[in-house]
Amino acid sequence: MVVILKNNPDKGQLNNLVTWLSGKGIDVHTTVGASQTILGLVGDTTHLDIDLISALDIVEAVRRVQEPYKNANRKFHPQDTVVKVGDTLIGGGNLTLIAGPCSVESEEQICEIAQKVKASGANLLRGGAFKPRTSPYSFQGMRQEGLRLLSLAKKLTGLPIVTEIMDISQLPLFDDVDVIQVGARNMQNFELLKALGAQRKPVLLKRGLSSTYEELLMSAEYIMAGGNDQVILCERGIRTFESYTRNTLDISAIPVLKQLSHLPVIIDPSHSAGKSELVDALSCASVAAGADGLIIEVHNDPPHALCDGPQSIRPEAFDKLAKKLKKVSEITKL
Ligand code: PEP
Ligand code: MN
Questions:
Q1: Which of 18, 29, 237, 258 has the most C-beta neighbours closer than 10 Å?
Q2: Atom of ligand 1 lying closest to residue 236 CA
Q3: What is the pLDDT of residue 36?
Q4: Measured distance CA(124)–CA(154) in Å, rounded
């Protein structure tokens, strides 16, 4: 349920309302906008008397929210959420570029790529240390050592780090990580989501391979219900009957998620396509459709990459693409 307040509500009456609602076991989330203040009520609101609340002097309107996600719902929070990571703002009309290899492979590799993507305008560095691989015989990531190398690259370039967590037990190792990624395969690992809700680092939540928008938003809700509202949604391609591409980039996800939710939406064109030659077109299409940013796999030697070489673009290609995306972003804002 959302309670929309009249302009300049009497503070005493507002406090009384919030205290009364809290007494009924309802969590009240207040959003103060430029023209309106909104109270988002989370909890069992079925027994609340809408007419009683509507009749209060300070109340403009009361609406039930049908969707099962509340904190993630745009009705609760009409303004875009902007997640701040270092000097970078994600969401709210900014274009954020996250770039780096699928996996951290060595100090030389991650440091070289970090310096190059930074010079091209990347805002954050990606790199997997814990890798979810389909085969147990594939490279599983450098794990703790990978995190150490990411920290070195961060020190060298100043780029904040985005890296994937696969299990709650890894959380204590993520101290120097700036944005914690939840991969597609873990989108519904609810215990992991709860643990990430209980901490305060931003979370990049990737859409599951066969998940609906509502399921993605419910996973975001798990994190937000724990008090962490720093969630970034990521569309990374979904399973369809098409097998030419690794996955199918769902462009509709951008306008739909932005309509349903206030959370930033970023696109992963690399895992969507599975082919480096498609990354340019999918990135431009995503920015034109209103994406808040991109997470792109960049490798200095794709043919020898330990993971996802075929979909990784070279630093020179990233440099060209970053320039193009700035232009697409400017045109899209017209
Ligand atoms: C990744 O970003 O390296 C990754 C494994 O992505 P996804 O979870 O989307 O497959
Ligand atoms: Mn990858």
A1: 237
A2: 9
A3: 84
A4: 9
Q: Give the pLDDT of residue 32.
A: 86
> What is the pLDDT at residue 57?
95
State whether the beta carbon of 128 lies less than 6 angstroms from ligand 1. Answer: yes
Q: Which domains does the chain have, with CATH numbers?
A: 2-63 (3.30.70.1140), 83-332 (3.20.20.70)
271: Cβ below 6 Å to ligand 1? yes
Backbone angles phi, psi at 102, to 5 degrees: -60, -50
Q: Look-up: residue for tokens 């008090």?
A: 227
Q: How far apart are CA 105 and CA 125, in angstroms?
A: 14
Residues with CB under 5 A from ligand 2 (ion): 102, 308
Is the minimum distance from the CB of 246 to ligand 1 under 6 angstroms?
no
Question: Which pLDDT does position 59 carry in this prediction?
Answer: 96
Q: Which residues of the chain are modeled with pLDDT < 70?
A: none
| Radius of gyration for the alpha carbons in the chain, expressed in angstroms and rounded | 21
Output the residue whose Cα is nearest ligand 1's atom 9. Answer: 184
**How far is the C-alpha of 178 from the C-alpha of 201, rounded, in Å?**
7
C-alpha to C-alpha distance for 283 and 127, rounded to whole angstroms: 19
Given a contact cutoff of 8 angstroms between Cβ atoms, the answer to whether 93 and 82 are in contact is no
Distance 186 CA to ligand 1 centre (A): 10
Q: What is the pLDDT of residues 240-289, one digit of tens each?
A: 999 999 999 999 999 999 999 999 999 999 999 999 999 999 999 999 99
pLDDT of residue 333: 83
Token readout for 111 is 């440091």
Between CA 145 and CA 130 the distance in angstroms is 10
Please give the distance, rounded to the nearest whole angstrom, from the Cα atom of residue 293 to the centre of ligand 2.
17
Distance 228 CA to ligand 2 centre (A): 26
Please enumerate in sequence order all residues whose Cβ is within 8 A of that of 328, keeping only pairs 6 or more positions apart, or say none.
Answer: 284, 287, 288
